[in-house]
Structures are given as C-alpha cells and as structure tokens.
C-alpha cells in the first residue's frame, strides 16, 4: 500500500498549519513566505531550508533578538526534528516532518527518495565554512556569536544567489552551493569568487571556501521546490574543505575548477593530496601571490 506524501510543516500559534514546500524565510515583512507580525522579529529573521529527503535545517540570519530552538539561541545552522519548538520574538512554532498521527517511516525506505527523478549535469560546487568555530563559540557571548554567524550566512547567500548560484545545503559550520554549467556560469563563478574573496578580507567571522567542477545527479524531492544533488563529486568537494583546513588555506580550487575557469596562470599549486573515497591523489590550488 502506498503512503500519501506530505510536506514538512509548522504548527503556528493558534493551531494553524504552514506547509514547507521550499526555502521558507521567516520575518516581519509581509513578503516572507511566513510573515510574523512581531516587533521583536527582524525583517528577514531566519530561514527553514529543506534539503535531502524532506530534511529541514533552521538558520538564523543575524537577527537582532535571535532564533531559539527548544529554548536555546542558535548560533549555527541546526537540523530540525519532529516536535522541535522554534521561537522568534514572542511567537513559538512547532516543527513536524510528517502529518499528525503518521508514524516515522523507516530511514532506508524513504518514499521521497524512491520517487526522486534525476539527471546528470556538469556543475560548479562550492563549500564555505567558518574557520575556528569552536574557538569562537568559547570566546564570544552567545548573542554576538549568533549575530556574526547569521550575518555571514545571510550575506554569503546573497552573493551566491546574485551570481546565479543556489544554496543547496546548510552544514553545521557553513553551507554548500552549486551552479549548473552554462554559457554564463564561468563569468558568474569568477564574480562569485571575487566577491567571496572580498568578504573574506572584511569578514567577522573568518571563513574558507573551496571550489570544484564535476558531474552531479540532480533531482527534485517530491513536494519540495528544491533541487537534490548527489554523487561522488559532492563527497569530493566536502573533503576539499577538510584538506583546505589541514593546509591552512582560505581558498582552494580543484584541478577541474582551475581548468574550466581557464585560470592556470592565476593560481599556484598548494599540494597533491589523497582524497578519502577516491583512488588517486588530487592536485589543489590557491590564487597566486
């Protein structure tokens, strides 16, 4: 017997239901997908980002008064679970990934992933992460840490989207984004790299970013207007961020990224390193001095 799919949803004050069918910004202005009329709520206060198979993450956008998850102010992107309570200002919202009274499905038999169509596409892949998050968390008061991280995430998302990219997934200390390859994507990538580099120079907190190019399976999760990416190249770019950290590099390009950017004369070799899950070592580059 098939089970009718239902999107994740929020129970609003008063008991009304708000379905999450794509990236959902919460804030005081009416053009947010979920507007909240509360003077303690910022204009663009927070995001609920669907990613994976009906998984959702909560992200504060540097709001003045903070976003609270189960009574604690968040200072980094956080995954949401059934029954979690989200508070913005005086408003409390309850999250659920499934309809009321529906038991949790077995993880291995997600009907969302089974129904997922996908196509192979050449993509630009970028991961950006805060440098030294643990140290920042120990040294900064919670409101300042939350504001710094949230403002960085908001500004970075704006750069990516204005340059034609898509923020695909939030990570505990950053985000993953992508561009499908097109006639304009090389220009867009160069613009994005330049703007991210400028942001690095002025950023508080400090962050690194890495860039790769390769084939990725792209599909759409049923009920959510969000692309779902999967494949070995995703694992590769996530591993790149760890290599950048180990090499103490704030910017790292894969050989494929350098080739497709036609940037061989603009970079220098950092290292040739093994990549977990891949048989051959890979070369990595950073902008030249």
TrEMBL record:
Record's Gene3D superfamilies?
2.60.200.20, Nucleotide cyclase
| Stretches with biased composition (Pro residues) | 97-108
Which residues are in the FHA domain?
24-74
The segments labelled Disordered in the record are: 93-114
Which SMART domains is this protein grouped with? FHA (SM00240)
Pfam families on file: FHA
Q: Which PROSITE patterns match?
A: FHA_DOMAIN
Kindly provide the name given to this protein in its UniProt entry.
FHA domain-containing protein
| Organism listed in the record | Prosthecobacter vanneervenii
């Amino acid at each position: 017997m098939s089970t009718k799919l239902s999107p994740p949803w929020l129970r609003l004050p008063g008991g009304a239901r708000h379905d999450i069918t794509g990236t959902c910004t919460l804030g005081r202005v009416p053009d947010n997908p979920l507007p909240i009329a509360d003077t303690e709520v910022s204009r663009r206060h927070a995001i609920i980002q669907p990613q994976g198979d009906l998984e959702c993450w909560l992200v504060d956008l540097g709001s003045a008064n903070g976003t609270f998850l189960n009574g604690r102010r968040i200072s980094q992107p956080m995954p949401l679970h059934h029954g979690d309570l989200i508070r913005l200002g005086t408003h409390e919202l309850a999250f659920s990934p499934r309809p009321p009274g529906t038991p949790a499905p077995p993880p291995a038999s997600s009907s969302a992933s089974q129904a997922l169509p996908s196509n192979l596409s050449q993509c630009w892949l970028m991961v950006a992460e805060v440098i030294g998050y643990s140290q920042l968390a120990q040294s900064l008061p919670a409101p300042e840490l939350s504001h710094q991280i949230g403002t960085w995430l908001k500004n970075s998302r704006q750069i990516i989207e204005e340059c034609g990219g898509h923020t695909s997934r939030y990570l505990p200390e950053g985000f993953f984004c992508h561009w499908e390859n097109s006639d304009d994507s090389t220009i867009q990538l160069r613009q994005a790299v330049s703007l991210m580099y400028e942001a690095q120079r002025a950023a508080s907190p400090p962050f690194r970013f890495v860039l790769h190019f390769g084939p990725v399976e792209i599909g759409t999760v049923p009920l959510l207007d969000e692309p779902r990416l999967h494949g070995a190249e995703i694992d590769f770019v996530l591993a790149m961020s760890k290599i950048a950290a180990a090499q103490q590099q704030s910017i790292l390009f894969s050989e494929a990224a350098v080739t497709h950017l036609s940037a061989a004369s603009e970079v220098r070799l950092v290292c040739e390193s093994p990549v977990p899950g891949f048989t051959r070592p890979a070369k990595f580059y950073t902008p030249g001095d």
